[in-house]
Design a protein that fits this description.
The structure holds two protein chains of two kinds. In chain A, about 0% of the residues lie in helices and about 55% in strands. By secondary structure, chain A is mainly β. Chain A starts with a strand and ends with a strand. Chain B is mainly beta. In chain B, the strands form two sheets. In chain B, strands 2, 4, 5, 6, 9, 10 and 11 form a seven-stranded mixed beta sheet that branches. A four-stranded antiparallel beta sheet of chain B has the order 1-3-8-7, with no helix packed on it. Classes of the chains: A mainly beta, B mainly beta.
Chain lengths: ~110, ~110
């Protein structure tokens, strides 16, 4: 079975500060991992994905995430927050052997303070 | 192709009525997923199709829910005898194959009054 836990349902950062959103996963098989962003009343947009290639993954809008198997983590970072980054962020996992569905975390709401 | 399209965007219905939502996936995508999202939660898996075959259904999908994907193209999700607890955002997503990323539509927000 697969699951993800997102630590911190709300994160606030100042504009220009480092963004760090935490995600830990549980998977009985090698996982594929994803970060999605959701703006109000919108669907989910893929930020980046890990599919067993490079452990440091770069995504859109300056975001990146590092897969750490020893820590079962896939934290999302961005060096400098922008006002437009304010949104809900979801981490998701799927099983690499079946890929039948994506399991999402409960989300982290990011607020950027001017 | 403009991505995954869902209709309607919003639906208000009275308790006990039936509702049907439509999802048009990205044209070459074989897999189609339905998720439900309630306020403050992440999307919860409901069901998915590989082409026209419905391969997996969540226990969340009670017998009042039915999904179809005729000819492996668009999909419909029907909820019969709606209940207030069915109020949620219903998200559709499609992917090219297993383990490729899913592209989501903008969702259908259902309100049952």
């Amino acid at each position: 079975a697969q699951s993800v836990t997102q630590l911190g349902s709300h994160v606030s950062v100042s504009e220009g500060a480092l963004v760090l959103l935490r995600c830990n996963y549980s998977s009985s098989v090698p996982p594929y991992l994803f970060w999605y962003v959701q703006y109000p009343n919108q669907g989910l947009q893929l930020l980046l994905k890990y599919t067993s290639a490079a452990t440091l993954v770069k995504g859109i809008n300056g975001f990146e995430a590092e897969f750490k198997k020893s820590e079962t983590s896939f934290h999302l970072t961005k060096p400098s927050a922008h006002m437009s980054d304010a949104a809900e962020y979801f981490c998701a996992v799927s099983a690499s052997n079946t890929g039948n569905q994506f399991y999402f975390g409960t989300g982290t709401s990011l607020t950027v303070i001017p | 192709d403009t991505g995954v399209s869902q209709n309607p965007r919003h639906k208000i219905t009275k308790r006990g009525q039936n509702v049907t939502f439509r999802c048009d996936p990205i044209s070459e995508h074989n897999r189609l997923y339905w998720y439900r999202q309630t306020l403050g939660q992440g999307p919860e898996f409901l069901t998915y199709f590989q082409n026209e075959a419905q391969l997996e259904k969540s226990r969340l999908l009670s017998d009042r829910f039915s999904a179809e994907r005729p000819k492996g193209s668009f999909s419909t999700l029907e909820i019969q005898r709606t209940e207030q607890g069915d109020s949620a955002m219903y998200l559709c997503a499609s992917s090219l194959n297993k383990n490729t990323e899913a592209f989501f539509g903008q969702g259908t927000r259902l309100t049952v009054v």
